[in-house]
Amino acid sequence: MSDTFNINGRTVGDGNPAYIIAEMSANHAGSIERALELIHVAKEAGADCVKIQTYTPDTMTIDCRNEYFQIEKGTWEGDNLYSLYQKAYTPWEWQEQLRDEAAKVGIDFLSTPFDQTSVDFLENLGVGFYKIASFELVDIPLLEYIASKKKPIIMSTAMGTLEEINEAVEAVYRTGNKQLALMKCSSAYPAKSEEMNLSTIRDLKARFDIPVGLSDHSMGYFGAMTAVAMGANIIEKHFCISRAIKNPDSSFSMEPEEFREMVCQVREVEKAMGKVYYGVSEQEESNTCFRRSLFVVKDIAAGEAFTPENIRSIRPAYGLKPKYYKDVLGKTAKRELKRGTPLAFGDIEGMEEYQS
Question: What integer pLDDT is reported at residue 189 of this predicted model?
Answer without folding.
Answer: 57
